[in-house]
Specification:
Elements lengths: L1 H27 L5 H95 L1
Helix pairs in contact: 1-2
Length: about 130
Amino acid sequence: MKNLLTSLCVAILTMLVAQTSSAQVASQQVPTTRVQQDQRNLYLTDSLVKVREARTKETKRTLNEAKAELDAAKKKYDEAKNAHKQATKAASEAKRSQKMEQKAQKARQKAEDQASKAKSAAIKSGEDE
């Protein structure tokens, strides 16, 4: 972006210098006849057309560069968005897996407790007989 602005400033300054030089040359030639006046006006018109063409060309080039930068930024955004989506998916999968593991651990603990109670009850009933 910085390079884009720098090149744009350089191009504008170059065009202004060219336009100023053309105007100085034209103003130094003082027309004395109608033909000379017409030639001078034609020269000034040609100079303005050339300056406008140069500006248009530079603007188009700048616009193309900006479009390229925008496309690159969109691509990076899409990549980051996809990476975020995958990370979110992985995090939710990990969280779901952790919950399943916790449920399994609780079920094991409950089964162990019931087995222990059953064993105690069996031992106790064996002692009562």
